[in-house]
Design brief:
single chain, alpha+beta, Heat Shock Protein 90, 5-stranded mixed sheet, two-stranded antiparallel sheet, 7 helices, 9 strands
């Protein structure tokens, strides 16, 4: 018999000491279910242990950080949640309350979305790396910022997403769908790494010349001018100074206190880099003096009079 894993990874299973403690987790009576097979997760929901897939007791070791290991880890965690909750619903349907059932279904929905996002990222990377296909058109970038910020605001109550005032700007030649993907990934990143909430600010400005660029962004990489520069800042934990350039590498994840508990395969920022560079722009990250981080990316403009 396969040895049982001590945890269900993301949903933090804790084994109750006896049948009495286990039964108290349920609204009704549990019949024909051994106490040793029932656990409660971090939300005090009863979970069938044997419904769980075997999972590692800890995050992958340094020697196990190849691509397959990263993807396996990012898939097995939500799939374990889905399997555990779905099997519990099937086996203990009569013993749990309607409210608990809804919690299970929300957990399954959330974990399923995580798997879908990962697979969509892999699909997008394959397309971008193989074809570098972008469909350019003249677009008002500020409108796209407003739309993306509004959609993200609907997904978080802990954060206030603001667009800083800016003057009227020229249209930029870009692929709106791909630039929306960049904005969405950067906003997700800002939300994810500021778990206590706070302000997320989006700025947009035009830079015409090298002196102006040096004055506003003194430590930025060389960019094509004139250009529009988008900035997305947060009040989160910031980035290690030694990793500011590495965050855009494929499958690279920043090593900080949130890494073990924050989902991600290190693909979102890599996708941003591919898209921005396909437009002839540059993307970079810096820490803010007052705390948190800021991500900038440039999009070249046609010559501006």
């Amino acid at each position: 018999m396969q040895k049982r894993s001590p945890s269900l990874n993301q949903i933090e299973i804790n084994r109750p000491s006896d049948r009495e403690n286990t039964t108290q987790a349920f609204a009704g009576d549990i019949k024909n279910v051994p106490a040793s097979d029932i656990y409660s997760d971090k939300n005090k929901l009863p979970v069938m242990y044997d419904a769980a897939l075997p999972t590692p007791a800890a995050k992958p070791s340094k020697a196990d950080t190849n691509i397959i290991a990263v993807l396996w880890h990012e898939l097995i965690t939500p799939l374990t949640v889905i399997k555990g909750y779905a099997s519990t619903l099937l086996q203990l349907e009569e013993a749990i309350t309607e409210e608990q059932k809804q919690q299970y279904l929300r957990g399954i929905d959330s974990a399923s979305n995580r798997v879908i996002r990962l697979l969509e990222n892999l699909r997008d990377i394959t397309k971008l790396e193989e074809t570098n296909a972008i469909t350019m058109q003249r677009i008002p970038l500020l409108d796209l910022l407003r739309q993306t910020a509004s959609e993200m605001q609907n997904q978080t109550r802990q954060h206030i997403i603001k667009i800083l005032p800016c003057p009227r700007l020229p249209l930029v030649t870009a692929d709106p769908e791909k630039i929306e993907m960049v904005l969405n990934n950067l906003l997700i990143n800002a939300v994810k790494y500021s778990p206590q909430g706070g302000d997320i600010e989006l700025g947009l400005r035009m830079v015409r010349s090298e002196p102006e660029m040096t004055d506003i962004f003194p430590d930025a990489p060389r960019v094509k001018l004139p250009c529009l520069i988008v900035s997305i800042s947060d009040t989160g934990i910031g980035l290690p100074e030694t990793e500011l350039d590495r965050v855009f590498e494929k499958f690279y994840r920043v090593k900080n206190k949130l890494s073990p508990v924050t989902p991600g395969a290190g693909l979102g920022l890599y996708i941003c880099k591919i898209i921005v560079e396909a437009h002839g722009g540059r993307i970079w990250a810096r820490n803010r003096f007052e705390g948190g981080s800021v991500f900038h990316f440039s999009l070249p403009l046609d010559k501006v009079l």
